[in-house]
Design goal:
By secondary structure, the chain is an alpha+beta fold. It contains 6 helices and 4 strands.
Length: about 180
């Protein structure tokens, strides 16, 4: 219930205060069945009667990251690449299979371009084919990413068996497989 959630927040706040951690009243978010943190919604609305938790990126955050990718497709200095990498890393952390992590490699390479005082005015912003494809892939992921659905009442599935034909042999000249 809302009263129990508020009481739990208050109790947690008191414990943290006793430990020396002070909460900002301006940043306090009342307990609710669905809360947004940095663009990611943790939605417990269906938990009580369906046993379902949903976690998803808000449409506004998805659109903002997709727009950054669009902007970077024509010119992408290291600072913009670093921004996209950070936002995309967080935005995909909750998603099933963490989609888009592999495509962050060219974006990370641009973000980590070596900086020195001599080259600060000559930073690369031209977008090569690898970087362009990575940005467009990430843009498309942001537009199509489904919510993560966690079904707590679902029966456990049967174990997955993996069969393979490798055999270890310590007497072989190769020393193993």
């Amino acid at each position: 219930t809302a009263g129990a959630a508020a009481a739990a927040q208050e109790a947690g706040g008191r414990v943290m205060e006793a430990l020396g951690y002070h909460f900002s009243e301006e940043k306090h978010v009342p307990a609710a069945p669905a809360n947004v943190f940095c663009g990611v919604t943790n939605d417990f609305v269906r938990l009580a009667w369906e046993g379902i938790i949903m976690i998803y990126l808000s449409q506004q955050r998805r659109d903002a990251i997709a727009a950054l990718c669009e902007d970077a497709a024509t010119a992408c200095p290291p600072s913009l690449a670093a921004t996209i990498r950070g936002k995309a890393w967080w935005a995909t952390a909750w998603a099933p299979g963490t989609p888009g992590r592999a495509c962050l490699q060219p974006i990370s390479a641009r973000a980590d371009y070596p900086l020195s005082l001599d080259t600060i005015d000559q930073l690369p912003s031209a977008v090569n084919a690898h970087l362009h494809r990575a940005l467009m892939f990430l843009r498309d992921i942001m537009r199509a990413m489904p919510p993560r659905v966690i079904k707590l009442d679902e029966a456990e599935r049967k174990p997955i068996l993996i069969w393979y034909d490798a055999m270890y042999d310590s007497s072989s000249t190769g020393g193993g497989w």
